[in-house]
Amino acid sequence: MAEDVVGMADAGFSARGSDRLTRPVVSGFHVMATAGTPLTTAAAIRVLQRGGNAIDAGVAAAVAAAVVEPTASYSLPTEVVGLIYDAKSRQVMALNGQGCAPGNMTIELFRSRGKPLIPVGPGPDAPLSFTLPGTIDAWAIAVERHGRLSFAEVLEPAIDYAENGFPMYRYMSLLLKSPEIARQFEFFPQGAAYFHPNGRAPEPGERFIQKDLANVLKTLVRAEEQARGQERAAGLQAGRDAFYRGDLARSMVRFSEQVGGLLTLEDFAHYRSKLEAPVRSTYRGLEIYGHHTWSQSATLLQALNILEGFDLQSLGHNTPAYIHVLTEALKLAMADRERYYGDPDFVQVPLEALLSKDYAAERRQLIDLNKAAPEMPPYGDPVAGRAVGGTMEVNGFRGPVGSSADGTTHLSVVDEEGNIFLATPSGGRLNGGCVVPGMGFTLSHRAEIFYLDPSHANALQPGKRPRTTLVCYFVFKDDQPWLTLGCPGGDNQVQADLQLFLNVVEFGMNPQAAVEAARFSSSSFPGSFYPHAYAPGRLNVELGIPTHVRDALAQKGHRINPVPNAGIGAIVTMLDAAMGTRAAGADPRRPTYAFGW
Predict the structure, then answer these.
(1) pTM over 0.90
(2) pLDDT digits (tens, 9 = 90+) for 52-65
(3) How far apart are CA 427 and CA 289, in angstroms?
(4) Any long-range contacts for 363-369 (C-beta under 8 Å, 24+ apart)?
């Protein structure tokens, strides 16, 4: 895969970021859609053209992504974080579609089986990490409350791609040929039968058909049609119930039982996603919106609060001093994440104190401008306003940190009325191989994120949402939507989004330059995924950052790890209220695609 990404990023952009780009900025006055592949973006455009708004189109793209981007560790019934801006009410809402732990999933169960962590595979223990699907309910609630089309209209592009097929593209074909996926298919051969038709991965240009997945989507549409004559909301609810209370739920539970998972029909029937208030902070007069601590979203806000006390422009973009300061600020934010972040329905999180500017000022003093923190820094005491509250014993696996670069996808849609929909869906590792027979999708493995230490904020409890890595952000300027940010990449997501934000805000880059600029990420904290790998002091640096910069960072104590990418598939959308333009940047590290007019 290296040839797809090496050399795509470059640190040498001008102030406006217009030179040496591999792609142009895509601009328009009316609509803008950007997603993980051209076909995903096309799904959004198709729905906009038939009269849908940004929420309808965004959900259409997200469901289509489950068909055309399964190698992005995203399957149909998994999880999503999203943001909705309603132009008429000028309201921002956060979409919480993170699935929760089954009711019989307990710390005691894993301890009784001798499991110090929740396993995810490769191997037969992978189904023990199944969580409840969150996406279908999230799509239904988003379309019902903020869209205007039916399930049938919104799902039409995805059904088309699944039933009639789409031309296999190189990125997906290469991943389907990877040794990691082949190894997982050894344990669950139904995955190989589905994604390796004719005994091999499809080649680029070959038609890839997924009839089973099309039938699942058509089941939702049929349920909606049977509720015809009632109001639109009733039809959407009927489609949603077909998934969580009907034969589809029974089939998923039966499969889970057969392979050793813990899902039950009662769990499915009681699951609910949420539309909730976003978390908000500011940076130099800008407003940034994200999600509560069932996500790692607020770590970006904490890092920005710390960085607000530095003159980042004077340090220079991607200089040793700049990369060092950002990395150390991220380490401090991640230390607080490990201590305090968890599902707020189960854990009391001092979020207001964590996002306090005074608290950030205290934490800022812990940064040594000349020396990297060799381990994860101490967490703070935000309630007392103290820089240091204590240290955590890190029991995770110490060793090479696996790449999460190929996981997850992101999309952004802006319609002519100014409504905006962002989503970062993920879950259902294709390399888990656990394809549900007759359905063509995998179930989510997100329970692997939980800890089995009951004192941990992210400790497993029945019904609790694991603290997901998924994030996306709105940025407002002068009380108007101005910027959207999002990308795949596990624990790299927050780190990449921070750099995207600063590329635009501090260095004046246009959206395309912002996503193409070389990036970096720290691994000096426990990883979110099994086995919570921890690499103290490691700084992953893309090859576009010059050798002399890497050498200078090493002199400060960073353990440099050159990587082909540090978060891929990034998307930045910018809205100019005065000019009325919408512009987007799509990351060339992946087949991400923007289209607008």
Answers:
(1) yes
(2) 999 999 999 999 99
(3) 23
(4) 363/302, 363/306, 363/332, 363/387, 364/306, 364/309, 364/310, 364/329, 366/332, 367/306, 367/325, 367/328, 367/329, 367/332, 368/328, 369/321, 369/324, 369/325
